[in-house]
Amino acid sequence: MFKDWRQRRAVKRIKPGDGHALKRYRWWQMLSRALYYFETTDHEGERHSYAVDVDYWTYFFSEAKADLYLDGKHHAHSKLPAAFPVPGGTLQVKMGPVGLKHCHFHSESGVEHPLVPEPSSAEGHRARLEQNRPGLSRLLGVTSLVVLIVAFILGIPQLVEMVTSWDIVAQYTGTWVSPIQIPDWLNGVLIFGAILASVERALRLRYNWLLDGGGDIDLDFS
């Protein structure tokens, strides 16, 4: 029920497009733009190509939004999270802290699968690595997950120590000193590693609200 309500809210945010052509993806946009494709057949049997285009600069400096193109022409746009109706289901797009966390086709029967990334994009290069070098791809995936788990486990005692040092909390709980004291340089390495690991997972549309989002839960009340 709550999921259906969120989807209805997302559909209401959709605005019609102006018909401009989809811009070509350039190699220097790998860190600033995500582009995914989806092909489907309408009720009359005609094939159509959809493209979901997300500009990360817009997300960083204002608000996250996605543009939907139909057969190369601007069809619609919406703030994220978005749910674009297409024949047979919806294209659902959600933003995470370091990139897209969801860009999937959700069929009317309840089946979902990720969209196909632009081959020249960072996501496309990562998908090609998974296809051509599956062993190396799995190793990178496992490494990213382990880094996030280690950073999370070591970060909990530091967070508790910081919170209990606040006067408003300490007067009720007392201060707590973590038995694990991590030097600043190692803390920096862990933070940097966790960011890289989250980026690697975002390239594969992998996301866990606790590990990747730092507690980022999308309630979608906008």
Could you explain how this protein is built, in words?
With 222 residues, the protein is of the alpha+beta class. It has two domains: 2-118, no CATH class; 129-203, no CATH class. The chain has helices at residues 2-12, 56-61, 122-132, 134-164, 167-173, 184-203, and strands at residues 15-16, 33-41, 47-55, 65-70, 73-79, 82-86, 89-95, 100-107, 112-114, 116-117. The strands form two sheets. Strands 1-5-4-3-2-10 form a six-stranded antiparallel beta sheet. It has a four-stranded antiparallel beta sheet with strand order 6-7-8-9. Strand 8 (100-107) and strand 9 form a beta hairpin. It is elongated. The relative contact order is 0.13. Keywords: Membrane, Transmembrane, Transmembrane helix.
What's the layout of helices and strands?
Blueprint: H1 2-12, E1 15-16, E2 33-41, E3 47-55, H2 56-61, E4 65-70, E5 73-79, E6 82-86, E7 89-95, E8 100-107, E9 112-114, E10 116-117, H3 122-132, H4 134-164, H5 167-173, H6 184-203
Antiparallel strand pairs: 1-5, 2-3, 2-10, 3-4, 4-5, 6-7, 7-8, 8-9
Helix pairs in contact: 3-4, 4-6
